[in-house]
Amino acid sequence: FGAKEAGETALAAFIPALTNAIADAIGVRALDLPVTPDRLLALMEKKNETKDAAE
Q1: What is the structure's pLDDT at 26?
Q2: How far is Cα 22 from Cα 40, in angstroms, rounded to an integer?
Q3: pLDDT at position 54, please?
Q4: Is the sign of the CA dihedral 6, 20, 37, 25 positive or negative?
Q5: Residue 33 half-sphere exposure toward CB, CA atoms < 13 A
Q6: Among candidate residues 26, 50, 51, the one with its CA nearest the CA of residue 39
Q7: What are the structural domain ranges in the chain?
Q8: CA–CA gap between residue 49 and residue 54 (Å, rounded)
Q9: Number of CB atoms found within 10 A of residue 28's CB
Q10: Model confidence over 11-27: pLDDT tens digits?
């Protein structure tokens, strides 16, 4: 019968909820997975560079 899904469905809503919580907390939307501290730092630095350039 092949492999059956065990718990993946329960995680389907978790990832978008997590990335939305991160976006609410730091103001940057993480689109690439996995979300790592290094990627978040790079996104925040990029946001600050864009903000500084606009001023």
Answers
A1: 92
A2: 9
A3: 79
A4: negative
A5: 5
A6: 26
A7: 30-55
A8: 9
A9: 18
A10: 778 889 999 999 999 99
What residue spans of the chain are helical by DSSP H?
Answer: 8-11, 14-26, 37-54
The residue assigned the tokens 């996995």 is: 34
Smallest Cα–Cα separation from 50: which of 27, 24, 25? 27
Both ends of the chain: CA-CA distance in Å?
Answer: 61
**Assigned token pair, 51:** 């903000």
Q: Is the torsion defined by CA of 53, 45, 25, 17 positive or negative?
A: positive
pLDDT value for 4: 67
- Does the pTM of the predicted model rise above 0.85? no
pLDDT-based confidence at residue 1 (cuts at 50, 70, 90): low
Instruction: Count the neighbouring beta carbons within 10 Å of the beta carbon of residue 43.
Output: 20
